[in-house]
Specification:
By secondary structure, this protein is of the alpha+beta class. It has helices at about 5-15, 50-60, 65-75, and strands at about 35-40, 40-50, 85, 95, 100. The chain has three helices and five strands. Helix 2 (about 50-60) packs across helix 3 (about 65-75).
């Protein structure tokens, strides 16, 4: 069973060290969280880009509007080293039950 968005948010909060300010999350996109990426001394939340776009479309946006909104308001919003990342899965790869095939 796939975790509910509030459970994913709680899991992300648990991943932050006591020394961290916390990990940054994109508002309203919890259902698209894939996990936490570790890079050198940095960590940041990663999302499934295709699922992010589907979530935006579910809010009433057309596919084109969802892409434009995401590009301008989310992808274009750099807020430091903990800015979330957005994954485009390689052909033939999928995420199922929190694991990569």
């Amino acid at each position: 069973m796939t975790p509910k968005p509030h459970a994913l948010r709680a899991w992300v909060d648990e991943q932050a060290d006591a020394d961290d300010e916390g990990l940054l999350l994109a508002d309203g996109l919890d259902d698209a969280i894939l996990g936490v990426c570790h890079r050198y001394t940095e960590r940041f939340v990663v999302y499934d880009l295709s699922k992010v776009l589907r979530l935006l479309e579910a809010q009433g946006m057309s596919p084109e509007e969802a892409e434009e909104f995401f590009s301008f308001n989310t992808l274009g919003a750099w807020v430091g080293d903990m800015t979330p990342g957005f994954i485009v899965l390689a052909p033939g790869r999928s995420v199922w039950r929190g694991r990569s095939d």
